[in-house]
């Protein structure tokens, strides 16, 4: 019962603290650390550290390395070869040498110096990638640089994790021979796993997938991940290495995305336990007496890493992109905790030595979301006023030179696949256009092919003006970036309220928002694809083309109202992306005891609750867009459209609850 008591305390504290940290837009990792500090021996002392809790926590790192292996891709490495091979390797190596040298001078222990140097050299993959994705910066130049460095850091953790048990061992052999032996073992294990993976894994997963059982699929993934970790452990290597290698093998199969989705809940929960155990190690009284040292380490680490990354990135990037990359990566990371925790459990380092570094990394991770969120403003401030205008003036000058000969032309914002297809049709019709894009390689290749494309950030008003906004015939927003679309629409409506603007949207939830911002027409990809597929179906079934065209015209004229929402069924919902396709369809059958029987639809006031009745099915006949005065009868099936919360309330009202107020 003592174990159950501890688990209840852990879960209750985690739920409360992580919920609060989510509300404050702080990383849940910090929340787990706070839980560990609060319930640990230095504070409330509610839970004692045991071998069981450490083993559970170590599996959090195992599954983290497994998911990193799943995402590992040789084509991705090649595409980001400079960011990974040059920027990432130099940053990790130089940071490790500098921080390690300082630690060696202070502690006199090479092993401890290697661990502390490695811990301080790493940044937070979880915080950086999540924040950049939320800010729609993951595919920008500085975003790709940051991801490349993080990828190398994730790979660099693997040899560090292997080295810690060797450094903590009591073998008489030299460190070089021990690491060499570990390398040979690693190569042997990797070769065996590659052979087994190619021969067995794909056929096994074909059979498992054929069984159409989610439980069996998840169990198989867990078995392979843990078995691989156990195999490397038997070879005298770390558990995490085996999980990483298994992830690489499974990442080459067509099931990698399903595997990642299935394993993520286990990884997140076990990682939470891992960070709680790290927090339990922190000694609050000791930190209070040495708070100035903690701040010195935190600030020193972030300043040095920022300057180092800026200096390396500046060799190929402009000052703004280099500074933004440096600000994003200046923080410490979760793998620093993993290295320190493993060295503590291996006996390589004592608790007192790790306290200040752990606290410094925590402080940097608390500051990370704020720094990343405002990286653009910080970069402009740190870079100084002279550099920014010169870069944008140069870009605007290039756009002006390209657009000057044009009049009554089309401006295409975004020159990806959609933008290029639009450009080809305009070119066929002899309609002049100028395209703007932020991918320098794409711009260079298109310019080499003679296409009127220029590098330019359409978020900046001066770039749109340089493209001839005052004399343009139309503006097309072909990129999939809702926030940027709204900003461009606001700029355009200020300068040219009469200009037709066409905007691309991923789904129907952006139609009204884009039109309110000034879009003349919005093309939602999902609904347009459904409409085209349906029109082909009707045509092949012999429906006259005139009637098919009328359907298409009416649906578009009614802003796709007929196609809005769908029955979600039992599909998996990602809580991190709960806003996507929020509105949905839901069918409610009025049984004999339903309260809504005998009432008119208008009397239910469902629309005040955000729910619309799209159809009523009665006696096998479906009537779309029912009249508000329709009186409901027993056996009627109402098709409702709204958010899940509103639909639940509406169903309660229809079947047995009170009327919506």
UniProtKB/TrEMBL annotation:
<keyword id="KW-0472">Membrane</keyword>
<dbReference type="GO" id="GO:0005886">
    <property type="term" value="C:plasma membrane"/>
</dbReference>
<dbReference type="InterPro" id="IPR038770">
    <property type="entry name" value="Na+/solute_symporter_sf"/>
</dbReference>
<dbReference type="Pfam" id="PF02080">
    <property type="entry name" value="TrkA_C"/>
</dbReference>
<dbReference type="GO" id="GO:1902600">
    <property type="term" value="P:proton transmembrane transport"/>
</dbReference>
<keyword id="KW-0812">Transmembrane</keyword>
<dbReference type="Pfam" id="PF00999">
    <property type="entry name" value="Na_H_Exchanger"/>
</dbReference>
<dbReference type="InterPro" id="IPR036721">
    <property type="entry name" value="RCK_C_sf"/>
</dbReference>
<feature type="transmembrane region" description="Helical">
    <location>
        <begin position="325"/>
        <end position="344"/>
    </location>
</feature>
<keyword id="KW-0050">Antiport</keyword>
<dbReference type="Pfam" id="PF02254">
    <property type="entry name" value="TrkA_N"/>
</dbReference>
<feature type="domain" description="RCK C-terminal">
    <location>
        <begin position="573"/>
        <end position="656"/>
    </location>
</feature>
<keyword id="KW-0406">Ion transport</keyword>
<feature type="transmembrane region" description="Helical">
    <location>
        <begin position="82"/>
        <end position="104"/>
    </location>
</feature>
<dbReference type="GO" id="GO:0006813">
    <property type="term" value="P:potassium ion transport"/>
</dbReference>
<keyword id="KW-0633">Potassium transport</keyword>
<feature type="transmembrane region" description="Helical">
    <location>
        <begin position="29"/>
        <end position="47"/>
    </location>
</feature>
<dbReference type="InterPro" id="IPR036291">
    <property type="entry name" value="NAD(P)-bd_dom_sf"/>
</dbReference>
<feature type="domain" description="RCK N-terminal">
    <location>
        <begin position="407"/>
        <end position="524"/>
    </location>
</feature>
<dbReference type="GO" id="GO:0015297">
    <property type="term" value="F:antiporter activity"/>
</dbReference>
<dbReference type="InterPro" id="IPR006037">
    <property type="entry name" value="RCK_C"/>
</dbReference>
<feature type="transmembrane region" description="Helical">
    <location>
        <begin position="356"/>
        <end position="372"/>
    </location>
</feature>
<keyword id="KW-1133">Transmembrane helix</keyword>
<feature type="transmembrane region" description="Helical">
    <location>
        <begin position="149"/>
        <end position="167"/>
    </location>
</feature>
<dbReference type="GO" id="GO:0008324">
    <property type="term" value="F:monoatomic cation transmembrane transporter activity"/>
</dbReference>
<protein>
    <submittedName>
        <fullName>Potassium efflux system protein</fullName>
    </submittedName>
</protein>
<feature type="transmembrane region" description="Helical">
    <location>
        <begin position="6"/>
        <end position="22"/>
    </location>
</feature>
<keyword id="KW-0630">Potassium</keyword>
<dbReference type="GO" id="GO:0012505">
    <property type="term" value="C:endomembrane system"/>
</dbReference>
<feature type="transmembrane region" description="Helical">
    <location>
        <begin position="110"/>
        <end position="128"/>
    </location>
</feature>
<feature type="transmembrane region" description="Helical">
    <location>
        <begin position="216"/>
        <end position="249"/>
    </location>
</feature>
<dbReference type="InterPro" id="IPR006153">
    <property type="entry name" value="Cation/H_exchanger_TM"/>
</dbReference>
<keyword id="KW-0813">Transport</keyword>
<feature type="transmembrane region" description="Helical">
    <location>
        <begin position="53"/>
        <end position="70"/>
    </location>
</feature>
<feature type="transmembrane region" description="Helical">
    <location>
        <begin position="293"/>
        <end position="313"/>
    </location>
</feature>
<dbReference type="InterPro" id="IPR003148">
    <property type="entry name" value="RCK_N"/>
</dbReference>
<feature type="transmembrane region" description="Helical">
    <location>
        <begin position="269"/>
        <end position="286"/>
    </location>
</feature>
<feature type="transmembrane region" description="Helical">
    <location>
        <begin position="179"/>
        <end position="196"/>
    </location>
</feature>
